[in-house]
């Protein structure tokens, strides 16, 4: 039995939570039940179910794809890609975006109540993988009565989920769009995440993850984690263009430890505002899932095996200044797809803004996605 | 009046501390007195004083250039460059290496006793600049009775000091060797340092810097700062070669938050071992000095002005995988030196190890330095 509760204005952006009985068998061996998935939909599902597009979000993203975020009051994170006249258009497409397993915006995660104890799971929540996230999404897609998705689309960790969708449920994905992503986490990717985890776990307010009953979450540690990660989302040239060595509200250096430079102030703001919308334990679990991600390893060590015999059409996009998931990672995906005989188009776009480019205004990206999705329409 | 106390075996590596009366006028406007400088010398000063080479250390370096570190028991940090038969050879050269102002290995810094209070300075220590560090070194060179240095040599922050030496005391530097360095700190450089500072200051044990009387320094925060910085010292390719996604002492992933990957374990070790040898407040002060560094700004906004009319010979070396101070930064130095009509040789060396290459075995680097220093001998 699954219950569906509408929580939002149904005219545009219908926010719901599906409580799926499960159990979901996880890659780590544990079983999760129930599986709660908070999601939004936009548009109307066609009678034949053939117009569904699933959008997968990134590490700190959420289901508020194109509607106002309830905590921050900011517009959805991908209104440039999803909306009237946009490449993904609710007038034509039935768009689904689900908060990933392990996150903190309504889907099952460490802040959820463990039914066996009546208290939040905290660190008793099972460690999950990106494939587990995708399996949970597939349960949601089942629940919505959709067999095959017209497209699965995502950037960064969202792109990794797209790859997992195509590898795990090849018959359910007509088209796959993988933006600014990678087929596995590199040693440097793991290293940056480990810094963030250590920053959180070093915060005495973390209390081994059991901070939910206290009004004192590990905000300082989570802010430092976010600051370190945020640097990796931007390019050196982008930071120089945006901030350079410009001073903050001062004519001269303070010869103190306040935020003298604009870039310091910006980073501090990024850290502080993040803790208002994100759960520290969720940050631990999702970064862990990303670090565990290695699609080739899941398929006998050969990436091409993940796509053997696939009928899915692929579109792979990278950005030239992205040093978190550089173009070489996208090329590795494309080489594997070529080796598997898959239909794939690949483009490296030019942008000064590094990894974050996929979230920013990019007419070139919109044109690529629009053309690719339109060409896949039947 | 200056006192000199030998502290070590004088046969090789003579460790001393000079207590110079000062006052030293700092760039921030404060006066520092006395100025204590812990340093080591190797070899014998020639009668004409013409064989002195000053080596400048990096952010977390120290004066233990080629002798055993008293706390870690490890060999000196640049035995590959300094020693018998090495490019800098105590049999020929009189080698000086001084702990920088603001550090914690015996030179005046936040852990030093403030003579006006009898307690450690902590955050009452004045904020310093790289030029202040160099001025303090010049006081030491005066104290040693040396007018002109045969060479000033350094990598990373050491290279920045070499640039300050050449710009501030052009008549006292015959040859300058600038390795893996930059003429100013970029927005990204500042951003990484700010993460480290915030990690330290977020640690409750930091106590606003007043932790010296407690047996509980901000070790967790300092370890996180070191971990974040350490990633920037290595290349992505070097991390992949050294660790890749190899697991730590386990056949399979733990599905937990222990250090599953070797790179996690390595980083944690880097963080933990660092706190045994470094003072958190010194880390704040030295990173601040580096972030303030902008040689062009100190010279009317034009880098070439810093070297106008210089007679110093320059050797500039970068490494192709160094993304902390990439080759483009060395090129900016070389262009300015060219514009100033200076004598300069420049080489980009190939190494897989990123910024840290200057500290690692590099026959090519040794050959470059050896040739450059020999060509400068009179």
Describe the protein.
The structure is a homodimer of 378-residue chains. The first copy, chain A, has 378 residues and is α/β, with parallel strands linked by helices. The first copy, chain A, folds into 2 domains: 3-185 and 295-375, Rossmann fold (3-Layer(aba) Sandwich); 189-287, Rna Polymerase Sigma Factor, Chain: A (Orthogonal Bundle), CATH 1.10.1740.110. Helices cover 31% and strands 16% of the residues of chain A. Chain A has 9 helices and 11 strands. The first copy, chain A, has a 9-stranded mixed beta sheet with strand order 1-2-5-7-6-8-9-10-11, with helices on both faces. A two-stranded antiparallel ribbon of chain A has the order 3-4. In chain A, α1 crosses α2. The two termini of chain A are 34 Å apart. At the A-B interface, α3, α4, α5, α6 and α7 of A face α3, α4, α5, α6 and α7 of B.
CATH architecture of the largest domain in chain A: 3-Layer(aba) Sandwich
Distance between the termini of chain A: 34 Å
* Structural class by sheet pairing and helices of chain A: alpha/beta
| Strand line-up across the major sheet of chain A | 1-2-5-7-6-8-9-10-11
Number of H- or I-type helical stretches of chain A? 9
Give the biggest sheet of chain A: 9 strands, mixed
- The tally of structural domains of chain A comes to 2
User: How many β-strand stretches of chain A?
Assistant: 11
| CATH domain class of the largest domain in chain A | Alpha Beta
Shape of chain A: globular
**CATH fold call of the largest domain in chain A:** Rossmann fold
Computed Rg of chain A:
20 Å
Q: CATH superfamily name of the largest domain in chain A? A: Alpha/Beta hydrolase fold, catalytic domain
Low-confidence stretches of chain A: 1-11
Helix content of chain A: 25-40%
Average residue pLDDT of chain A: 94
Percentage beta strand of chain A: 15-25%
